Amino acid sequence: MICLGETVREFDLDQDDALGKAENHPLTTAQKARITAVSVGKCMIAVVRDNGKGDFCLQDERDRGKTENLSLKGEKIYSLSCGADYIVMVSEKGNVFQLNCQKKTYIPRLLNVNGTHVIQVVCGDHHTIALSRDGQLFTWGRNLHGQLGQGERVPGYPDPEPLLTRGIPLAMIAAGGEHSFALSLSGAVFAWGKNSTGQLGLGDKKDRHGLTLVKSLDMKRTVYISCGDEHTAVLTKGGLVFTFGSGEYGQLGHNSNRDEQRPRLVDELRGSRVTQIACGRHHTLAYVPSFKTIYSFGRGEQGQLGRGLDSSQNVPLPVQLSSEFDLGIGTIFAGGNQSVCSHETLPCLSRMMLTVDDKLVNRWISECDSKPWKTLKKEIMQTFSSASTLNGSFLNQSDDNHYQTTMENSGLDLSLARLAFERLAKKEKVLKQVGSVVQEKLIPSLCQKPAGVEGMRVYLILPELLRVLPMDRELCVKFSEAVCKLNPLNLKILESFFKSLVKVVHSTSTWFLHQMRTEQKDFRTSVEKTVAVLHKLYEVNYTASRKIEDHNFYINEMKLFIQFIGRMPGSENSVNKITQFMEILHKLTMYPCIFDMETKCMVFAVNNCAMVLTAQMAPSLQNHLHVNRRSLLTDTFQGLKSKARDCRWPLLVQFEDEYRMVPGGVVQEFFTIFAREIHLMEPRMLELHEDSRLVWFMPEGRCDHDAYYLLGIVCGMALYNKCVVNFHFPLALFKKLLGLMLTLEDLKELSPNVARNLQEVLHEDEDVLELLDLDFTAKGHEIVPNGREIPVTKYNRQKYVETYVDFIFNKSVKNQFSGFLVGFSQGCPNELWTMFLPEELIALLSGNVVYVWEDLQKNAKYQAYEPTDENIQNFWTVFTELSEEKKKNFLSYMTGSDRLPVGGLAEIKLTIVNQNKPNPDDFYPVALTCHCWLFLPNYSSIHILREKFVHAISFYEGFAEQ
């Protein structure tokens, strides 16, 4: 180590003091022990030697140049930092000691840092920050400007207090006069404290009392921060230097004395790859190794710029070094009004926060059987109990990928985590200990509001651990609870990375349900917790336009679970079990994402049956309708208004002068006719959009709230009674029923022409927009107060489009829809209709028109017939010859509607029956719509079959039996 005293002599506080002159000064080459750490404070300079001892020299008026020894009883000093009048030291064991230099006893005091191993410590004038090996921060001292980060009303702490870092994996800390910084492993910069000159880089001069992200340094790949009294310098991995804060003495290097409130690149150093920076009180140093040159700028009246002058300079200029440094410089320091450089890179700068890597995992595996297990357990505890430690692990180092951390890029290489945990799994003892620490220590400590993506990495890493802990279901439950506690913004961060998380939680939920079904174990609480996580992740996925497909959330075990309930015996001993299983099923319906469409329909049907049973216990009301085909619409509305009814009962319909009331096909036919008549007879209620052939509520309809209420009842009853009825409503209606927000995309379906015009408004040039002469009106109505007086411009056109869509779907039909919603909920008392997605709900109610006619024959059954009988062969020959329209007529003839239920024609279970009537050629085919039976006479020829069959389906209304 070259004598620091001699190097200081060229650009130091006082060229004639003992630092530079005295041969017996502790900083000269006369000392045998090599210097390993240096800190320069406001009024002192201190060093540590490789023998674990040190010295410091005060620079105040009374003790100027006086040197004192530094030592710790029973421990060696590793590093230190100087405040205004005190020194804080870190021992090799990670303990922290503080020495008050105003007290002449100079006895260090051991500080309590909760038993953690501290690796870095930095001092401002009167505050201190310490970083532990497991990523914890501690602060103490004065807090006048928030420099402790502990809140606005805290005056200060005499001893270290933990500072919540929200899981940030930290690379280093820095402190200025009364401000503080922390740097994450991926280059995120956090600042707090005094900001009177903009030294926090936040774009203003407001003090901060807690960790605040310096957004303007995002993606800059910051690797080092140094602080002066009221200015800050940051160094990027690419060798660029940014400075901000006070520029009074030119210490920012921008060729001016102006303050900067945001980080600004030092242009004079552009093109020179800087590898080290250091800030003194009012000056800054930067080292460029390719030139073997230190550049300095700022206050220089005491020689601290090293140019042989006592003037300040506001641009970086080379320091005049002796020939001893021709081979290069190892480390530079600055503090107070001093500057120091060394030949060597001092080791205390390289100690970093603990992270999980291959080397650590391999050592645990190889040493777990040979070294004391207690020692390894302690290390595992320290590593896996800290979110910061895991958040800093398994980073993607290729092309500095982790420095580009964003909402879409976690900065992780999860394949590294997967391989590491698979290796851990080879030693069950180690893996079990890791799982125990994660469950008992890590998960309970997870923050509900982690700091951005870096603080969220633990939620992406833990699923990889859970993959190799398949039997530790309780750990998965605890982890699921932690995910559920995250706020929506943090959950949003997971959207790009959570497929593995979905897979793990899905697997665990399935296992719990399987155990309940096969072993009849009570895992109700565990199922609810894990399924709740799936639901939260589904919501994130849904708002992200389904980054992964919905089937990733479906739990197939639910279908088996429901079938199992249905097969349970009705004995007295089974009642409690059935009740218990029904309770868990009911609770799980709160999380519809786990059910596929078929299973939702099963759950809906089961609940329908339960509601009918409930209605039977108090049979005071029924649900009957008497209508005439010629006045069906009027009769229906009148019947719904005049007679109280219990919609939990299946709807029974009787057409005047026809068969008695029956469920099934007659009810389906009623809804089919109702839907047709509502469009023909009541144009006052529903407005037809010609460009889409879809209908919407009439904004200025003459029908009152009650009319839409009655229409809602009919729609709700159709859904409850599992009848398909096409009202030609857009998907937007079903989104509204489910409380979802509507957008311009929804208007494109209802009114493509209007939506296209609005889309053009969003993209037109300003001059074209002005020619359009638009204002905030829609269909002659002001959509905002004084809308006719507000022209649409490029600045408010987004609001115009959003308000226009809101007017069409919401404001203009507010009363109409509110009536419809109340009626719909009454007509469908089974509240589980809210389980369905809008697309599923419209499919259930409106049916589909994808006809795979081959499925009808494939699934057909026969009574008193065989599939090979000639009459059956002739029937299918005739059916195949029919036009598409005639085939739909046959569907209406059999079911009451030409629209298909969910599942298509495969769900139509056609049964063809031979009644063995005498003289069959005299009879027409007859449909038993309630059971989908076709009574087909055994005709003597295909020609007679064709004639009778085509006639029947051509005049099918009323051509049926009960």
From TrEMBL:
Family matches, as PANTHER family: E3 UBIQUITIN-PROTEIN LIGASE HERC4-LIKE ISOFORM X1-RELATED, UBIQUITIN-PROTEIN LIGASE E3A-RELATED
GO-annotated molecular function: ubiquitin protein ligase activity
One of the GO biological process terms: protein ubiquitination
InterPro entries membership: HECT_dom, Hect_E3_ubiquitin_ligase, RCC1-like_dom, RCC1/BLIP-II, Reg_chr_condens, Ub-ligase/GTPase-reg
Ranges for domain HECT: 643-962
Enzyme active site: 930 (glycyl thioester intermediate)
Pfam families named among the record's database cross-references: HECT, WD40_RLD
RCC repeats: 83-134, 135-186, 187-238, 239-290, 292-345
Signal peptide: none
SUPFAM superfamilies named among the record's database cross-references: Hect, E3 ligase catalytic domain, RCC1/BLIP-II
Gene Ontology cellular-component annotations: cytoplasm
Source species, domain of life: Eukaryota
Protein name in UniProt: HECT domain-containing protein
Keywords noted in UniProt: Repeat, Transferase, Ubl conjugation pathway
SMART domains, per database record: HECTc (SM00119)
